[in-house]
Structure to design on (636 residues):
């Protein structure tokens, strides 16, 4: 159990900068999620902790130890690979017991510990099978068991759920969360799935192009995105990001007018507002931000996603599941200005108002 | 299934079997012929029309070759040279191949080194015969099996290295990474994970080295001059003399020469299965 600290860590592959000047401290027993699109440097960051990639510059600490020049075997971390990386020539039992075998733990003790871990992840009946005889979910459990059989200082999980089908993923997500709570081991978890990040993390680091755009609790990231990238990446359906101009606290894009944005003046602005903070009102409502024909209305089950055109973009809103409007029908649209965000189109940063 | 489809299927199968049969006859007939001749008297070997099956079988040629002449010795020499070469080539080829497949090299070095290794095979072997002869003469190694092993290894090792390199490159690198994170050294990951998974590659490379050095003629002809040190191909060629060609003995020795390779191929065949690493990665 230990914290993990990155001090000005940079990783370059040739001329390509994968991770740029990263500063981050993962606290002891914390579940930290590195979230970002593919190629943002999140996996590289994790691999540097494991010792599978060297840093180009900067230092990495696990606990109090600087581990830059420490071989993976001495770092005392456990990793679950996206591909699981099970040893195909070994049985489930030998796969799980491999870390103990390397540490020369006697066979009887090893067997006992494997049995115990296998019970925990419900693999006890499959111990003598080979990986190729297992389903995807079972393989995932073997990989997990191999990681938790010893108590490492840090768990590294690289998109461990991405190869599972949707239903199993939800179930394993809950189990992972429970397991981490039970084991109380510092965990770094890499994913591109923002729902996994939101549900699992104590803190989320949203990465883009090798830098952390924002670090915070899932709630902070969701409710208070600091950059345009974070705003667009978090949330499903995604936040509306409408281009326009702000003069004296009024956002204008064609027919769309949103008042009540303080006294902000931004010539190239982006208005960010989540679909749940845009409301359908009567087409003649005086307080409406715009009146427009319905572009599309999609029933998702729990609600109806309604969208209208705002300039060249679509503005979508979450309406009641009983919403009965038809395409081309005129509706009023009201943007909750107190729940909206303004971003500077040039710097991509939040503009407070 | 309609009747027409059924007929069609039978025809397709029949033609496939026919093709296999033709291929088998073409490849196996010479072997049958050499085996048949080895059991015939000299006069029957040249019979017209040919005697397809030996009517008066005899072991005369086997006695001539293996009792009266030192073909047993030749065979042993061939065996030692071939097995020695195979062990040395596969051992070093595996390690070199792994290094080329996995280690990090600055710039283009991985490519350059690989290419340089292969380039040693670009000249015909005969080019290196005179330097090798002088070299072995200088070290007083002519007529020794070590000299044969060194010479054969020199031209087997590049191939062994390349074959193993491509096998290791096909293995998912995560498996060794997982082993190292699990607490193993690079060497341990190589021994316990990469090597067992490269078994089909090892088997293929070993067969390849064994056949090449078992059949080798040119180097053995120059390096070995005494009966005590010569190999089977030299011994067999030696039965084509100024006055006579001893087809019976040649057939007997040739037929016996093919047997060890067949046995070895059967032995390693089960390791030649594909897809050993199937199920390692991806769900």
């Amino acid at each position: 159990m230990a914290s993990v600290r990155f001090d000005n860590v940079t990783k370059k592959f040739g001329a390509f900068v994968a991770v740029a000047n990263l500063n981050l401290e993962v606290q002891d027993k914390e579940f930290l999620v590195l979230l970002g699109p593919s190629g943002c440097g999140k996996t590289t960051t994790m691999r540097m902790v494991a010792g599978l990639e060297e840093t180009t510059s900067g230092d990495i600490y696990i606990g109090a130890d600087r581990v830059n020049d420490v071989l993976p075997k001495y770092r005392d971390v456990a990793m679950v690979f996206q591909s699981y990386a099970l040893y195909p020539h070994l049985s489930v039992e030998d796969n799980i017991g491999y870390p103990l075998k390397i540490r020369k733990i006697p066979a009887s003790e090893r067997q006992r510990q494997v049995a115990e871990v296998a019970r925990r992840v419900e693999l006890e009946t499959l111990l003598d099978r080979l990986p190729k005889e297992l389903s995807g979910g079972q393989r995932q459990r073997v990989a997990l068991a191999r990681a938790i059989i010893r108590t490492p200082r840090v768990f590294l999980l690289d998109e461990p759920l991405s190869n599972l089908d949707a239903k199993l993923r939800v179930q394993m997500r809950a189990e992972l969360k429970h397991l981490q709570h039970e084991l109380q081991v510092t965990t770094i978890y890499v994913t591109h799935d923002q729902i996994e990040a939101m549900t699992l993390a104590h803190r989320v680091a949203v990465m883009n192009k090798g830098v952390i755009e924002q670090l915070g609790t899932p709630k902070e990231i969701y409710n208070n995105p600091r950059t345009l990238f974070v705003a667009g990446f978090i949330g499903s359906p995604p936040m509306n990001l409408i281009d326009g101009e702000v003069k004296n606290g009024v956002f204008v894009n064609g027919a769309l007018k949103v008042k009540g944005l303080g006294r902000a003046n931004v010539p190239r602005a982006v208005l960010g507002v989540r679909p749940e903070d845009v409301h359908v009102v009567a087409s003649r409502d005086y307080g409406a931000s715009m009146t427009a024909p319905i572009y599309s209305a999609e029933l998702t089950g729990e609600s109806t996603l309604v969208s209208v055109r705002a300039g060249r973009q679509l503005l979508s809103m979450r309406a009641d599941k009983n919403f009965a409007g038809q395409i081309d029908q005129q509706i009023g649209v009201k943007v909750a200005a107190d729940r909206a965000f303004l971003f500077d189109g040039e710097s991509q940063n939040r503009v407070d108002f | 299934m309609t009747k027409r489809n059924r007929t069609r299927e039978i025809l397709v199968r029949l033609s496939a079997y026919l093709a296999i049969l033709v291929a088998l006859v073409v490849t196996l007939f010479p072997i049958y012929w050499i085996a048949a001749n080895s059991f015939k008297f000299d006069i029957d070997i040249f019979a017209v029309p040919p005697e397809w099956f030996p009517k008066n079988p005899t072991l005369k040629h086997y006695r001539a070759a293996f009792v009266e002449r030192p073909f047993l010795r030749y065979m042993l020499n061939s065996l030692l040279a071939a097995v020695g070469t195979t062990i040395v080539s596969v051992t070093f080829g595996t390690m070199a191949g792994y290094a080329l497949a996995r280690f990090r090299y600055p710039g283009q070095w991985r490519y350059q080194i690989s290419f340089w290794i292969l380039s040693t095979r670009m000249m015909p072997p005969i080019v290196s015969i005179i330097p090798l002869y002088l070299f072995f003469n200088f070290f007083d190694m002519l007529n020794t099996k070590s000299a044969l092993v060194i010479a054969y290894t020199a031209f087997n090792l590049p191939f062994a290295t390349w074959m193993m390199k491509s096998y290791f490159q096909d293995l998912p690198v995560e498996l060794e990474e997982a082993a190292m994170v699990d607490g193993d050294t690079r060497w341990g990951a190589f021994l316990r994970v990469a090597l067992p998974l490269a078994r089909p590659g090892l088997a293929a490379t070993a067969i390849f080295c064994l056949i090449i050095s078992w059949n080798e003629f040119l180097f053995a002809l120059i390096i070995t001059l005494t009966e005590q040190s010569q190999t089977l191909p030299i011994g067999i060629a030696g039965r084509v003399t100024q006055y006579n060609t001893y087809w019976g003995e040649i057939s007997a020795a040739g037929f016996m020469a093919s047997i060890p390779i067949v046995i070895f191929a059967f032995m390693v065949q089960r390791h030649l299965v594909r897809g050993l690493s199937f199920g390692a990665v991806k769900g």
Notes: DSSP finds 13 helices and no strands in chain B. Chain B touches chain A at residues 172, 174-175, 177-185, 188, 193, 196-197, 276-283 (CB under 8 Å). The radius of gyration of chain B is 24 Å.
